[in-house]
């Protein structure tokens, strides 16, 4: 519909609303009626509803040669004309004048128009020009209708194909469209969520005082150029605010109303999508936490509605992506698109990490990576011969983000996700030293791989006997918590398992009490952790009558010594006798000050030795090297120190590892 505001914006008509006149920009204009002369009662008006009526009050020429009597008659005729226009709800009365301004309009007409609530305008076009312009009104109406159609089409083009894709970016596109269409500024805001969209970027500054005034006086009327429209279904606080270059007409009002409706739907869909997405994330995290405690069947049931068959594989690899200090959500969205339904991606509840459990469809547990073209001891890139699309996709993401790094595990059984996670984190520690910042688990053998299985099973079963003979549900709960609690700090273990850190601490204390071992001893923790790894890998046998003899026999076989020498070999190239420092550090419960005293070195020297040793043995020693102890000095992370302690013991006999519990 063509409105008075639209005609006022067209220079051809040279229209201005008279100051003090009734605001009428949104009034519809269906036609133009030009009335000549001053005694308008002589011309039958007929139907003038929604018409623009144009007059010249004192004749067509520049000079007024009418008598006083004729002027009085003209005033009376003007009064009758204005009454009839007001009665029929004509769009407005336009007075042709030489120049714009209220002073150019006879006072009698201004007073009558104000009294009758009839919009009054001036035009500097002559009546003859108006007679020529009137037939062109249809063309203006057609152009206006096309403009409205184009604007609505432009609005549709800014909408997503799926409601699942509705987000703040779509809201911003709609705001940009509306600001351009109305040649104004647009703001979508919510008291709790803040600015949702703004066009231009300075719009929040423009609307700040207006929104403040509106909050103080909600019923206060905005200016003719401003609209505040609540978003449908988005809550009473979410509002679309628009200020246009000219007063709102029907077209501007319609476009604003359409925009508000669309924005409301986008907001609803976006909030609903986020709610669903949050629920899906929680379910995936629950599935991962179940895998971490060995409940693979329960994890499969959780994931079945989300990704049927995803966890039905026997073997998996685990990848851990460290997002450093960057926004993890950006990387998570890239990762989710990359893995799709082929792998389980979760946001780590402890660190700024992403964890991916990737079913190894073409590999069996124990497969290793081909290291032929990789740095010694650590593979980088995609596993040779067992190419994983997931691994390659994640590698591309990590290499494109300079602050990121990734570690990956070997192929593990589905029930061993906790061990695979440990391997991936260990590999992560080395990733920053590799060109592409991607490190995969070592190809070299682990301690548990080289131990004599029968002897190892018998020793581990003896050491852990008080735990292994508990009822199954209680046993499995304590063993899984103990295993993870010795690998990561209690707070982290609690979040990974979905329990409180105090629960982790309580279970750990219960385990060590049952075993008859002092939990505060790092060497005790190392031995218990080693026994757990054996039970997880090999199970446990009948109890031995001499666990100490079993332990000595277990660590004395040539395979273990060869493994230990290989593990420690990188330390030999350093002239500072790093193994000596590491032995003393372990024997002094990893306290730097005590180690320094025992070796007659400065604490700074001990710390320097530890910093040097960690990358050489490709392990994080998880030490707060700016202090004497760990940040939580009652919790030690053993993924780095366990193999170190066993390797040193197997080659030198030190540190002495407690092979059996001391009861009483």
In short:
By secondary structure, the chain is an alpha/beta fold. It has 25 helices and 15 strands.
How would you describe the overall organization of this protein?
It is a single chain. The strands form 3 sheets. Strands 10, 11, 12, 13, 14 and 15 form a 6-stranded mixed beta sheet that branches. A 5-stranded mixed beta sheet has the order 1-5-4-3-2. It is rod-shaped. Helix 5 packs parallel to helix 8, helix 6 (168-182) packs antiparallel against helix 8 and helix 16 (472-485) packs across helix 18 (501-515). The chain contains 25 helices and 15 strands. With 664 residues, the protein is of the alpha/beta class. It has helices at 4-8, 68-87, 107-115, 127-133, 137-157, 168-182, 203-216, 250-292, 296-303, 328-339, 389-400, 417-431, 447-450, 453-463, 465-468, 472-485, 490-497, 501-515, 522-538, 547-555, 558-568, 578-587, 592-599, 603-616, 641-652; strands at 15-17, 31-34, 51-55, 92-96, 120-123, 185-190, 194-199, 226-230, 239-243, 315-322, 344-347, 353-359, 405-408, 412-413, 438-440.
């Amino acid at each position: 519909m063509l409105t008075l505001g639209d005609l006022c914006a067209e220079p051809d008509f040279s229209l201005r609303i008279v100051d003090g006149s009734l605001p009428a920009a949104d009034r519809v204009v269906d036609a133009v009626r030009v009335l000549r002369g001053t005694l308008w009662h002589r011309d039958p008006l007929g139907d003038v509803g929604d018409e623009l009526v144009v007059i010249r009050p004192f004749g067509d020429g520049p000079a007024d040669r009418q008598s006083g009597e004729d002027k009085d008659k003209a005033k009376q005729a003007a009064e009758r004309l204005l009454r009839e226009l007001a009665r029929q709800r004509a769009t407005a009365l336009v007075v042709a004048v030489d120049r714009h301004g209220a002073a150019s309009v006879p006072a009698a007409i201004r007073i009558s128009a104000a009294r009758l609530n009839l919009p009054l305008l001036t035009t500097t076009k002559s009546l003859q020009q108006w007679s020529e312009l009137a037939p062109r009104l249809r063309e203006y109406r057609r152009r206006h209708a096309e403009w409205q159609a184009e604007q609505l089409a432009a609005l549709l083009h800014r909408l997503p194909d799926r409601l699942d894709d509705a987000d703040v970016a779509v809201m911003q596109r709609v705001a940009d469209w509306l600001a351009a269409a109305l040649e104004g500024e647009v703001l979508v805001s919510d008291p709790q969520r803040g600015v949702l969209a703004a066009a231009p970027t300075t719009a929040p500054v423009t609307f700040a005082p207006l929104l403040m005034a509106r909050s103080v006086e909600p019923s206060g009327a905005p200016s003719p150029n401003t609209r505040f429209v609540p978003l449908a279904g988005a809550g009473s606080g979410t509002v679309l605010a628009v200020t246009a270059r000219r007063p709102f007409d029907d077209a501007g009002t319609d476009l604003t109303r359409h925009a508000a409706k669309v924005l409301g739907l986008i907001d609803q869909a976006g909030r609903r999508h986020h709610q669903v997405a949050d629920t899906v994330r929680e379910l995936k995290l629950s599935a991962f936490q179940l895998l971490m405690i060995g409940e693979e069947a329960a994890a499969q049931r959780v994931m079945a509605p989300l990704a049927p068959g995803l966890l039905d594989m026997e073997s998996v690899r685990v990848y851990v992506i460290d997002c450093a200090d960057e926004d993890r959500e950006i990387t998570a969205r890239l990762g989710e698109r990359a893995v799709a339904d082929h792998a389980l991606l979760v946001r780590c509840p402890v660190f700024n990490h992403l964890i991916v459990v990737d079913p190894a469809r073409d590999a069996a547990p124990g497969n290793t990576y081909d290291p032929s073209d990789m740095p010694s001891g650590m593979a980088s890139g995609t596993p040779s011969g067992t190419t994983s699309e997931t691994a390659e996709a994640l590698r591309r993401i990590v290499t494109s983000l300079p602050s990121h790094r990734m570690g990956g595990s070997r192929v593990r059984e589905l029930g061993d996700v906790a061990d695979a996670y440990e391997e991936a984190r260990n590999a992560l520690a080395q990733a920053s030293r590799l060109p592409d910042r991607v490190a995969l688990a070592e190809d070299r053998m682990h301690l548990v791989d080289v131990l004599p299985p029968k002897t190892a099973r018998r020793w581990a079963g003896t050491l852990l006997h008080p735990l292994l003979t508990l009822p199954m549900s209680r046993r499995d709960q304590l063993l899984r918590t103990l295993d993870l609690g010795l690998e990561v700090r209690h707070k982290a273990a609690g979040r990974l398992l979905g329990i409180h850190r105090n629960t982790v601490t309580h279970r750990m204390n219960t385990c060590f009490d049952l075993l008859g071992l002092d939990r505060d001893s790092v060497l005790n923790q190392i031995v218990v952790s080693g026994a757990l790894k054996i039970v997880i890998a090999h199970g446990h046998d009948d109890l031995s009558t001499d666990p100490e003899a079993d332990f000595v026999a277990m660590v004395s076989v040539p395979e273990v010594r060869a493994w230990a020498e290989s593990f420690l070999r990188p330390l030999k190239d350093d002239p500072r006798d790093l193994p000596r420092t590491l032995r003393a550090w372990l024997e002094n419960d990893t306290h730097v000050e005590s180690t320094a005293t025992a070796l007659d070195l400065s604490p700074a020297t001990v710390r320097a030795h530890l910093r040097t040793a960690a990358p050489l043995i490709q392990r994080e020693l998880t030490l707060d090297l700016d202090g004497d102890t760990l940040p939580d000095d009652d919790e030690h992370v053993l993924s780095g120190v366990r193999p170190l302690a066993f390797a040193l013991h197997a080659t030198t006999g030190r540190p002495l590892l407690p092979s059996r519990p001391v009861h009483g």
